[in-house]
Amino acid sequence: MATALVSQPLFAESSQYNLTRGVTDISNQVYDLHMLIFYICCAIAAVVFGVMFYSIFKHRKSKGAVAANFHESTKVEVVWTVIPVIILILMAIPATKTLVAMEDTSQSEITIKITGSQWKWHYAYFGEDVEFFSLMSTSQQQIDGVEEKGAHYLLEVDNPLVVPINKKIRFLMTSDDVIHSWWVPAFAVKKDTIPGFINEAWTKIDEPGVYRGQCAELCGKAHGFMPIVVQAMAQDDYDVWLTGKKEEMALAKAEAAKALDATLSIEELLTTGEGIYASRCAVCHQANGQGLPGAFPAIAGAEVATSGSIDTHISKIVDGVAGTAMQSFANQLTDKEIAAVITYQRNAWGNNTGDVVQASDINSYKTQEAEPSSKEL
Ligand code: HEC
Ligand SMILES: [Cu+2]
User: Fold this and answer.
1) Kindly report the CA angle at 143 between 141 and 145, in degrees rounded to 5?
2) Locate the Cytochrome oxidase subunit II copper A binding domain: which residues (predicted)?
3) Is ligand 1 within 6 A of the CB of residue 135?
4) How far is 98 from 101, CA to CA, in rounded Å?
């Protein structure tokens, strides 16, 4: 009977109040399991409350009922222990089956490493040399309520994770800083990403589409601003995307190399820097450079961005500050972008140093760092 109910849910399928079926075999298993357990709970509730209300009504005081006076009925105690145990075991069997299937990452066809960090995702495709960051793309104006909120408010990113359908995809998940959790409800995948650990999960998507999720672990101030967008497409389209992405990455690399020889004007650096600052730094140091006292230092008027040496300033961004939320941006931004954002910080909000930092400065800082310099000898 239970299976009949599950396969033809009374009101479940189309209700906006229920779980959705999702788009993977596992998410369907989870859905069926949820319905099965739900109906078992309903049946238990009907029996328990039925007996209770029947007893209250039948043996009410106005009918002259007199309470029986007994205790320690071994028979009753055995029965009320054994029945729930049997019910629990019956429920554990399908639940364990689904859990085991969720954990089985064997025979996967694609492996993608997912790294969480405050507050963005990084995706790396194994064996493909393709990797990129994925950041929320909702504008600050929408968040501030100055602009009308879009259809995918807080659930949109600049670079979605792109995957093919009908392929078993294994995810290796880890984190650069605190615990995050990669959660896409339509796949029934939700796994913590833990610094120093690698967790595994997998999915195999049945239908092309765009699926959205969020970080599901309270990971700091902008926890609500690191959404996940997955674009699932047919294998052919995926292949085209992958080739395009590789070309795009090669182009960016060539561009970055070219930037090392270029001397950019301060205007150009400031424009680029302002954009980088708004999208990558303002979440902590604030758009006005004032930071948040006690959590994120101000850049406006700070020694590091005014009278301090440029190398110290560069080191903060290239190396980060170990043990704090100030992460290393060495692999997140190109040398040109780092140079631009430093130039911006040294000239915005009254930090009128007039200093100009070029990509080559960043590059020479990095190389200096890589080989212990003669200074140290
Ligand atoms: C996740 C939050 C976060 C983000 C994003 C972030 N920072 Fe920081 N930043 C910090 C924290 C926290 C510190 C203080 C570290 C410490 O204790 O020394 C800091 C320190 C700094 C300092 C040194 C300040 C001082 O007075 O010593 C500079 C410069 C800086 N950040 C620049 C940047 C730039 C440029 C970006 C963007 C590319 C950026 N930060 C993005 C959190 C952040
Ligand atoms: Cu997070």
Assistant:
1) 70
2) 107-244
3) no
4) 5
pLDDT of residue 5: 47
Q: Which residue has the CA at smallest separation from atom 27 of ligand 1?
A: 304
In this structure, which ligand is nearest to the CA of 116?
Answer: 2
Q: How far apart are CA 217 and CA 199, in angstroms?
A: 15
Closest Cα to atom 28 of ligand 1: 316
296 lines ligand 1 (CB under 6 A): yes
Q: How far is the CA of 75 from the centre of ligand 2 (A)?
A: 52
pLDDT of 1 above 80: no
Q: Among the atoms of ligand 1, which is closest to the Cα of residue 220?
A: 1
Determine if ligand 1 sits within 6 Å of the CB of residue 348. Answer: no
- Give pLDDT, residue 11: 53
Percent of the chain with pLDDT over 70: 94
CB of 285 shorter than 6 A to ligand 1: yes
The predicted structure's pLDDT at residue 71? 82
Instruction: Say if pTM beats, i.e. exceeds, 0.90.
Output: no
Structure tokens at 224: 């609500």
pLDDT for res 331:
86
Ligand 1 within 6 A of 317 CB? yes
Q: What is the pLDDT at residue 36?
A: 93
Which ligand ends up closest to the CA of 275? 1
